[in-house]
Amino acid sequence: MRARTPFIAASLALASGLAIAQDKFPSHAITMIVPFPPGGVADITGRPTAAALEKVLKVPIAVTNRPGAGGAVGNAAVANAKPDGYTILMALSSISVIPAADELFDRKPAYSLSQFAPIALISADPTFLTVRTESPWKSAKDFVADAKKKQGQLSFSSSGVYGALHMPMEMFMHAAGIKMRHVPTTGGGPALNALLGGHVDVTAGGPAAISGHVQGGKLRALANWGTKRHPSFPDVPTFKELGYDVEYYIWAGLFAPAATPEPVMKVLREAVRQAVQDPDFKAQMDKVNSPISYMDAPEFRKYWEADAKRLAAAVKVVGRVETKPAPKPEEKK
Questions:
Q1: What is the CATH number of domain 26-124+250-318?
Q2: Using one digit for the tens of pLDDT, what is the confidence trace for 122-142?
Q3: pTM higher than 0.85
C-alpha cells in the first residue's frame, strides 16, 4: 500500500495540472459567427466588437459570415457547436423570430432558444423606413398614401423571410393597411444594396447600416419604429407619432451554446464588459450612429425573453407570408 502512495500522489498532481491547463480560457482563437453577409447591422457591430475583444482576451477573434435563411443557418451553427466558448454568435433580434415562424409553418425548427446562453447585449436601435432620395416620397404619410393607391405594386427588400428587417415591414404594413411585394435577400447588406440599386422601392434598416448613405445623400429616412426619435435623426418621426401602433428594435447581442461552462461564460462576460468601454470600439459605434446599449447576461436574458414573447406574438398576427425570390443583382455584397 505504501509503495503505491507516490504513484497515487503523482497521478493526483498530474490530474490537477491537466485540470488547470484545461481551465485556462481562452488558449487559442475564438470564432465569432455573424449569421448575415457583410454590410448589415450584425456585421457592422460584430467586427468592432471582435477587435475590442481581442485586446482583452489576447487571442484572435475570427469573424465568420454564415448567411442563409434569414439568419437561421448561422444561428443553428452556434446552437449545435461544441460548448467550449470558442464559438460565439453575434445575433440580431431575428434569432427569436425564426423558431416562432417554424412553429407557424409546422416544420422542424432550425434550433430552439434554449440552445443559447446570452453573454451580453451590445446595441439596440429602432429600424428606419428608408427610400432613395430621388423617390417621390418625402414623408411616411406620402409613402402610405401612394402605397394605398398601388396596393401590391411597390416592393421592399429584407434580410430574409421573417428576418430582422422583414418583421418590422410586415408590422408596418399590417398597421397601415397596405400591401407590398416582399423581396427577401440573404442579409441587411444585400437588402440595402437592393434599394440603392433601384431593385426595390423601400427597405427597413438600422442606423448603423443606413447612416452613411443618408449623410451621403443617397437615402432618405421617413420614420422609425422606436418609441422616441433617434438622436442621430432628430427630424425623423416615429411611427407612433404618426398614429401607427408599431414598435420594433433591431438589437445585436452575443451568445454562446447553452451548455458552455460557467467559468468560461464568466470570462466572456467580463471580456465584453471591458470591450464596450474601449475607446476605439466607442468611436466605431459612434461613426455609424449606433449607441452602445450594453447589458450583462442576467439583464440581457430578461430583455431577450420579453422581446422574444413580443415578436412571437407579432409572427402570429402577421401569419404566413408569401414571398418571391430575390433577383440576382440584390445578392451582391
A1: 3.40.190.150
A2: 999 999 999 999 999 999 999
A3: no
9 φ, ψ to 5°? -65, -40
Q: How many residues does the chain have?
A: 333
The three cell numbers locating residue 131: 427610400
**Which CATH superfamily hosts domain 128-248+319-331?**
Periplasmic binding protein-like II (3.40.190.10)
Contact 128, 210 (CB under 8 A): yes
Residues of the chain with CATH 3.40.190.150: 26-124+250-318
CATH 3.40.190.10 positions along the chain are 128-248+319-331
DSSP 242-290: TT-----EEEEEEEEETT--HHHHHHHHHHHHHHTT-HHHHHHHHHTT-
Q: How confident is the model over 20-60, as pLDDT tens digits?
A: 345 699 999 999 999 999 988 999 999 999 999 999 999 99
